[in-house]
Amino acid sequence: MDKILEGLVSSSHPLPLKRVIVRKVVESAEHWLDEAQCEAMFDLTTRLILEGQDPFQRQVGHQVLEAYARYHRPEFEAFFNKTFVLGLLQQGYHSLDRKDVAILDYIHNGLKLIMSCPSVLDLFSLLQVEVLRIVCERPEPQLCARLSDLLTDFVQCIPKGKLSITFCQQLVRTIGHFQCVSTQERELREYVSQVTKVSNLLQNIWKAEPATLLPSLQEVFASISSTDASFEPSVALASLVQHIPLQMITVLIRSLTTDPNVKDASMTQALCRMIDWLSWPLAQHVDTWVIALLKGLAAVQKFTILIDVTLLKIELVFNRLWFPLVRPGALAVLSHMLLSFQHSPEAFHLIVPHVVNLVHSFKSDGLPSSTAFLVQLTELVHCMMYHYSGFPDLYEPILEAIKDFPKPSEEKIKLILNQSAWTSQSNSLASCLSRLSGKSETGKTGLINLGNTCYMNSVIQALFMATDFRRQVLSLNLNGCNSLMKKLQHLFAFLAHTQREAYAPRIFFEASRPPWFTPRSQQDCSEYLRFLLDRLHEEEKILKVQSSHKPPESLGYNETSLQEVDKAAVLTETPCTSDGEKTLIEKMFGGKLQTHICCLNCRSTSQKVEAFTDLSLAFCPSSSMENLSFQGPASSPNIQDDDLMHTTVPGPSEEPVIYNPATAAFICDSVVNERTIGSPPDEFYCTENTSVPNESNKILVNKDVPQKPGGEPTPSVTDLLNYFLAPEILTGDNQYYCENCASLQNAEKTMQITEEPEYLILTLLRFSYDQKYHVRRKILDNVSLPLVLELPVKRTTSFSSLSESWSVDLGFTDISENLAKKLKPSGTEEACCPKLVPYLLSSVVVHSGVSSESGHYYSYARNITGTESSYQMCHQSETLALASSQNHLLGRDSPSAIIEQDLENKEMSKEWFLFNDSRVTFTSFQSVQKITSRFPKDTAYVLLYKKQNSTNGLSGNNPTSGLWINGDPPLQKELMDAITKDNKLYLQEQELNARARALQAASASCSFRPNGFDDNDPPGSCGPTGGGGGGGFNTVGRLVF
């Protein structure tokens, strides 16, 4: 059979005929053959594989060998023996050199064929020795890559014990000798692929045998620190950096910078070569290690090395900015080198001649990535020109080139320069990494404070724990989209699936931070939340328009309402109610609220329905304050006709529109009780933060409050909500200008919620402006947080149809009779009483401190879905809906108290979580209730309530409604791949954790806080570095996982 096959492959017969005969030869392999025939066939096929003159002969050799080896396993085992394999590796095959890649490929395939045979163990022992010999001979990249393939598939061939350390060291040296002389793209890609295979092999060995890591790294440093002029280590060593656990940065850099055996010349060489690694296209974390080493050298005051390296390499680093693959890392290193080089303009002036060309080039391509890069570069250049002023001839062309980009404030420039100076680096290395450990027992992931970003962290955790919203975000198909929603989905996915204790949301922070928010400064979490929701809403509207190629009006968004509504506070009014036409933010957080004003003289009415995403609840004034003027800063006592945006309703066909303070933030300008910081003046004013573009368009209202007998009991959220919705009599100086009467008249104003949101966001207006002392103060009143909140919603009955049947009692003189001169309906109670929609408390954002410009935010939250704990809630709501409107608004003896008490008892056994930046712990609802009584400066600020539905998920026609009741939706492949990759890295870090701790203990000068960024700070604090953001300009972000 071997003679037939040999004659066939060398004959001139047509190729199809040859293939048919070869197929017959392969089929005959299952027939019995004696040992000599088998050996002859194995000899022939081996010769065809290794010395075949064309691809067809080599292919035939593989096919026939595999077939005969499978059916004649003992004979092939005897043929493919230890002596034969050793001869191939040491002597080659006939004319084929032993270093030919074909020999390794043949051995690789042979091992697969005899994997189940006992003799394979002898081959493994042989190969453990031979692969070490091959590596010591410094094979070319192609041969080394094939060897890596073999060892990846057959890890039994990797040397064991002490030989494994030697093997890794020799493999590092081999990589250091790699070179690629070709400039063709195909050859370069192949070279990078070969290097990647070898570095991946080293990664697998480090993971399997952690004891090999440190000797390997020592070998890397020995190669790059060599001062031998005859040898230049390959840039391919950069491929190893991404496999070194970032957790070891602190220990390794401390060890290197404090080792007396490392001379300055060697350190300079090593640092220069690491900077050269920025050119390697697939290397990750090179910039992180370079910056860490620069900081480490500054910490031990080795300024000579820093100066020499900066002047030598600054232009090379700048030139790397032209290449997109390595641009982010190059910009990070360039920023640190320039900002830390503050004793002389020499380094900056080396790159000044090249700045203008770079800026013009990137401005002309118009890519978003180029624009974002130029914004960062512009900020860096402004900092340097500020620090080294006095060179107008050099800087004028640059200023002209970057004039269209934002200029950082002087305060920001000073902050960046102060944080980046070499003299400020002495302790920065210790805080550049967070403590690495697994998730806490809660199973939840914290968010690393990036520098006074607790306002964002607390809001994000509250939104993440809003189960239905989280699931909707994770289920979105946003592949290929770089929207803010995509970044939120990425953040939610990592919070849900990462194995890390805390995640650093840097990308999302930069994308979602309002432009007027100063970085590293405390901000208002409520303002951030409104901005975030509005951005997501507006973004989805634009995407819908683009995808449907329809004008914005087709999505139900009115241009007029867009002009009238403050985007930071409320959503635009839309006449469409179909869930399919709503954005996700509208579906989850959007509600509608109707404002109705009735003239008490002519009974004409005007009304307006407005959308909202949150309600701002003011505190009820004290009982002694009978006259409170809720007045805008620009409003006038004399209300002109144009000051009220309204139309009188002559008939039911005309839709009335009036000014609506629906979500007005009634912020008391001064203190309303003795617990507020500061001394209260005699007269109180409140500001309306309304959604009307013209700040002068305000309605003056007068709210009389009942006397509280026997002291002042703790108000509840229900009280504040009732106060917000209470009818108001506009009289005296606050009279309403009626167009029908053509004069000022007494009027009544009523607000009703006509459409409830899935998630109700309530903001307690605790920050007030004191007009007497001209300062912002905080109201520290304790507020009772009900676990169950019943929201009065009036969906069906129109105010217009009822306005004529209402009678008004103008004889109220005793303010204790009614909360706010409540109207008494003359119709049936059922017609005017709204339905009470039950909500369960989902999360609470707490502010700790005495002013909005300082303090700390953290949040309490729990998982609630649409049907959770809804037991008989629908029946109870129907019963409660029969109660009178007055009893509900007064909030006295509501039957919901029984339900709430029952829920509180059940909630004691449920899990609440406390999210405090990177720390997440278990807590209880009792702790949430008592937070202010235990810590007077810690007060509830933003509340999220989840509506209890008869069905889970979003209401309406949403096709995804009701899915994932017991878990989050499956992630998109892109997200899952990113999380899987990061989790694998985390496992490697954990595996080497013990080794790192041992090195850390051995380094006497290495000390850093063992409990993370701010674990040792007092409660309600963002920590000495702004919650653990660390120092430096655009660098620490790359040192945090």
From TrEMBL:
Coiled coil spans: none
InterPro entries on file: Papain-like_cys_pep_sf, Peptidase_C19, Peptidase_C19_UCH, USP, USP38, Usp38-like_N, USP_CS
Superkingdom field: Eukaryota
GO cellular component: cytosol; nucleus
Residues of the USP domain: 445-948
Pfam families reported in the protein's UniProt record: UCH, Usp38-like_N
GO biological-process terms attached to the record: antiviral innate immune response; G1/S transition of mitotic cell cycle; negative regulation of innate immune response; negative regulation of proteasomal ubiquitin-dependent protein catabolic process; proteasome-mediated ubiquitin-dependent protein catabolic process; protein K33-linked deubiquitination; protein K48-linked ubiquitination
GO molecular function: cysteine-type deubiquitinase activity
Name this protein carries in UniProt: Ubiquitin specific peptidase 38
